[in-house]
Queue: 4 jobs
Job 1
Amino acid sequence: MKQFVCFLVLSFSFFVPTIAQVVGGGAWRTLAPMPSARQEISTAVLNGKIYVIAGFTSTGSSTNTVEVYDPTTNSWTSAAPIPILTNHNNAAVAAGKLYTFGGTSNRNFLYNPQNNTWADVAPMNFQHGNTAAVGVINDKIYVAGGNGGAMTGRELEVYDTVANTWT
């Protein structure tokens, strides 16, 4: 169910109000709307909550806004903004930690939900903007494709969450 709701937030994040399909019921129902309309965002699920990170605002400006949806209460809260304005960025959860990266820069950030802060981690070798493919295997984050800088769009990098390095 969590993955299904995350998919819906990804798919319909620019549209307000948020909607979800009742599994097995064949009907859609309206959920709490996102506080701000955005597109070209990144999302990830951490501790049962969906984090919607950065993107373009409804006026087309890049943002650093982070909003968090709690499906158990059908409510949104704000989290600390990421340190830069960006869009077309990516996010992943590895080793129980939330990371956001790529987009308009090669900078990467780690979120600490206990104190609601973001910290810089090792930068990628490439920018991987415009929605690169992301996967997590054995707590390592794989990022492929995208564009930015001198990229050809075929680059694959792996982030080691323990060593804080990209290869």
Job 2
Amino acid sequence: MVRINKIVTKTKSKKAADAKATLENFVSKIEKELDSYFSNEITYAFGVSPKEKKLSSHIWNHIKEHNLRPAKRLRGSFVYYGYKLIGGKKEKDILRAAMSIELIHTALLMHDDFMDQDDTRRGLPTTHEHYKTYHEDNKFRFNSLHYGESMTVNVGDIALLAGHEIIGKSNFDSEKKLNALNRTLRGIVNTGFGQAYDITLEGKGIASEKDITDLHLAKTAIYTYENPLHIGAILAGSKQKDLELISKYAIPGGVAFQLQDDILGLYGDPIKTGKPAHSDLRQGKMTLLIIKALELGSKTQQKRLKEIWGKRNLTEAEANEARKIVRDTG
């Protein structure tokens, strides 16, 4: 039995190492494409006057800097490997399509950080913080916070629409492009509804285990796993039965991914996760960890966790208290 366990462990470790190497290989490819794309957009930035063109170039520079921060490129990789899974051969074209999803993801992160009021993303200022500082450095009038948040909505929208444009301008045949664009658009629309549900659950401060599972299905399972895999498969000419088979993997995979992400959000290293320490706690994020701790904890534990959870000026000591309560309640 010991020998079998060692073999299983070794096999799992090798598969994990192979998967990591495969993803790293993809990351190096797509980031070259992204860098080239951004350089072109910065050079030819829109502007009817030199002043407007200068601001447009600044915006593209920020989108580039934000996007090229160290990242896993998971969603882009799913577009790429979803395409390969169905037998697609257009390497350059599918890298461009995968790049579009990474740009869309950057847009949603910008908006998400604004909604969560996070100050950093992957160790550097979030977009609303970047433009708040830009306002202050340039000594603009009115409120720097409002300027930063307004620019985040605008810059995020630019990145979001530019991402969709990349698919539209790709070299795939018209029917495949249209189907992929429709799938992308509907996936983002549904993600928006999922985000609205997430924000509403946070506002209520009450949720069941089913509510949390439904939320993960509505957001992460579709957005992070199913949608990009389907886009890649569609561009390769997949049949409906292919998409259905992919969904059987993607949906539970996406839920598992989000559960793991919630664990990292509470216990992970901010340097590795790219998220500020105890951001989820401070935000009052609805997770299965919190719901179960409130369900299984003693009255004292429940009371203390409710005091800490969602506290905007949360201290590290209080965050550690919450972590201990979650751990002690199983």
Job 3
Amino acid sequence: LRYIYENNDEFAPLPSMPFALTFKGGNSADVLPFPPQHFMGAIGQIPPQGPVLDGERSPTLLKQLPTSTKNWAMRSRVTAVSQKRSGAVVESETIIVDKDTGEECARLGNSVFYVGVKGLQSAGEPSKVVIEIPQRPPDREVSETITLERVQTYRLSGDYNPLHVDDDVAKAFGFPRAIVHGLCTLGHSVRHVIKEFANGDPGEVR
């Protein structure tokens, strides 16, 4: 209950929560297309030629996230477009700002992969961060099954890509059924990391 119930004595936001906030943008109650328009900036919506998939995510938490406030702003901009042989990658950055103090609270790097899209002109400076996987046994191993109900509930956070809820859409793109949101999987993974390596304290994650 710590991450979902505001009256819990240890109520705290999961460190990966800011990624979900970016889907809704402002105070929209509508079902928004994926990716949302504010991710795309001046590029506008790109007509999909295949599935539109989450790419990489790179969060930097600059201060501990509060549990409530009314004066936040999110500022997004496109940082790079890369035309690949199998599609196009659009990278963006979202900064979450405390409007009362002007402090930046989080910087979120996002990338979206448009499978099959051709003809875009590459621009900007694509991210070149490469994380090397250690060549040794893992420090911990945790196994968890993400149920269909959890996937459908996660959609209510604002990640409305139909690939994750509509079997017909998923099959049209070559998948046997709707697939789990990458960010839903990330949220579960972050929770396990906090439990195993941060003594259960989400404030330790940066």
Job 4
Amino acid sequence: MKAAPRPFFYPKFFRLLRGYRSVDFFSDLSAGLTVGIIALPLAIGFGIASGVTPGQGLWTAIIGGLLISLLGGSRHQIGGPTGAFVPVLAAVLFLRRMEGVTQVLLLTAENDTETGANAVRGKDVPPGVVLFRFEGPLFFAAAEKLEFALRAHTGKPRIIILRMRHVPMMDATGMKALEVAWEKMNRDGVSVLVTAIQPQPMKVMFESGLADRIGMDNFCPDIDDALNRARKILGVECDGGK
């Protein structure tokens, strides 16, 4: 028995031309222009990010788009640089990860994990002084966590020490959270001290003006200097109240 002949391969493009009308052409032209406005700048960006010229990125997108249109897909399908979703998803996952990494804790001798000279255990913390420890980068997630940590302390402190030696970086949203917290504490008459801040967060605080508002005397290199500064502030306050 003679085998049935195998069907000849026709590219998808030619099969879709059957019954193709002028109105379909103008609809596709409009859709193509819209996609091109979005896709071509992305193609240039992908070219630069890949280490080639913008022109090579454009040609790659054009040739790739033609091949997709000629050999695959359907009339209702758009072929484009799906790699654009990679940085978007990466950014979402990064922010989600940072939300879990960032911690703001009310610090006591019992829950302090520091050792040696950086530990709070064994140090004389004056009454009215409360310590908070920041862990991880200060991004948008810090706002809610900082507010929650401040509410967790039911008393009214006179001085708050922010330990920031484990904060490698801070963005504008983290800066805003810190600024809002400082404004509230300043209205309540609470002095704020910052210890062991790293260069990048310090730069952000300088540029925002918060460093000047806190006062450079209130930035301390370590916890011992911060406690000494707190005793000095409390002593001045006591003398002024007599």
